[in-house]
Amino acid sequence: MTAFLVRRLCWMLVTLWVVFTVSFFLMRSVPGGPYDSERALEPEIEANIRKEYNLDLPLSQQYWLKLRQMASGELGSSMKKDYTVNRLVAEGLPVSAALGLLALAIAFSVGLVAGVVSAVFRGGVADVGLMAIATVGIALPNFVVAGFAIILFVFTLGWLPAAGWGSLEQLVLPALCLGAPYAAYVARIARTGMLDVLGQDHIRTARAKGLSPFTVVAKHALPTALLPVVSFLGPAVAGILTGSPVIENIFAIPGLGWHFVQAAIDKDYPIAMGLVLLYTTLLYTMNLIVDLLYGVLDPRVEWR
Amino acid sequence: MPPRLLTAFVILAGLAAGVIVIVRQGQLPPADFTFNNDTEVESLDPAVVTGQPEGRIIDELYEGLVRLDPKDRKPIPGVAKEWEVSDDGKTYTFHLRRDAKWSDGSPVTAEDFVYSMRRFLDPQTLAEYAYQAWYIKNARRFSRAARGVRPGDPVEVELYELPPGALPFARGELLRGELVAVETLPGATEQELEDPARYTELRTFLVEIDGERRRFRVGEGPFPDASPAKQLTLAFDQVGFRALDDYTVQTELEAPTPYWLNLLGFYPLAPVKRECVETHGPGAWIKAGNIVTNGPYMLQFRRIRDRIRLRKNPHYWNRDNVALETIDALAVQSLTTSFNLYETGEVDWITKVTPLIARELFEQTPPREDFNPDAQFGTYFYNFNTTRAPFDDPRVRRALVLALDRQEIVTTACAGELPARSLTPPGLPDYEAPECAGMDLDRARQLLAEAGYPGGVGFPKIEILYNYEQQHQTIAELIRKQWRRGLGIDVATRNEEWSTYLASTRQLNFDVVRRAWIGDYLDPNTFLDMFVTGGENNNTGWGDPEYDRLIRDAKFESDPAKRLELLAGAERILMTELPVMPIYYYVSRSMVAPYVYGWHNNLEDRHPLWSLSIDRGRPRLNDFMSSKPIRPIVLRPQAADTPSEAAAEALTPPSLPAEEDER
Question: Which domains are seen in chain A, by residue range?
Answer without folding.
Answer: 15-71 (no CATH), 94-297 (1.10.3720.10)
